[in-house]
Amino acid sequence: MILKTRKRMSLIVTAVTCMAFSHLTAQSKSLKDSTPEQRAKMQTEWMKTKLALNSTQIKQVYDLNLEYARKNDPVFKSNDSKLAKFKKLKALQKEKSSFLNKVLNEEQYKKYQEIKDQLIQNFKNKRK
């Protein structure tokens, strides 16, 4: 039971971290095959639309998304256990969120958190 819960949480965090507001269309490469630069661009475009970023924020968010897409890449490609990956990705996501809190205004950050929570809930519901 604990392993199932850990596995489920691992999948949830991995999915949210990977997708992290990436809107992948049928024409897009799969997330697994995309480069950190492609993921950062998709995340930034999505955030630009959903959070109404200004031009300064767009640059800052892209740089942050790129930095963390690059940090996540070796974790995704590692041979670590799912639990080890989960822990690393969760820590990276927490770190990224703290930086986003400095880039986004209060309203944008609140919306970011709400959307992130909704994505997690949707993923949990699909897994049932």
Description of the structure:
The protein is an all-alpha fold. The protein has five helices and no strands. Helix 1 (2-19) crosses helix 5. The radius of gyration is 14 Å and the shape is globular. The two termini are 14 Å apart.
Write the layout of secondary structure elements.
Layout: H1 2-19, H2 36-51, H3 55-77, H4 82-103, H5 106-127
Helix pairs in contact: 1-4, 1-5, 2-3, 3-4
Q: Average pLDDT, to the nearest integer?
A: 82
Strand proportion = under 5%
Radius of gyration: 14 Å
Number of alpha- plus pi-helical segments = 5
CA-based shape = globular
Order of helices and strands: HHHHH
What's the number of extended β-strand segments? 0
The SS-based structural class is: mainly alpha
Q: How far from one another are the termini?
A: 14 Å
Q: List the uncertain runs.
A: 20-29
Largest sheet: none
Helix content: over 70%
Summarize the structure.
This protein has 128 residues and is mostly helical. Helices cover 79% and strands 0% of the residues.
Features:
128 residues; 5 helices; mainly alpha; 79% helix
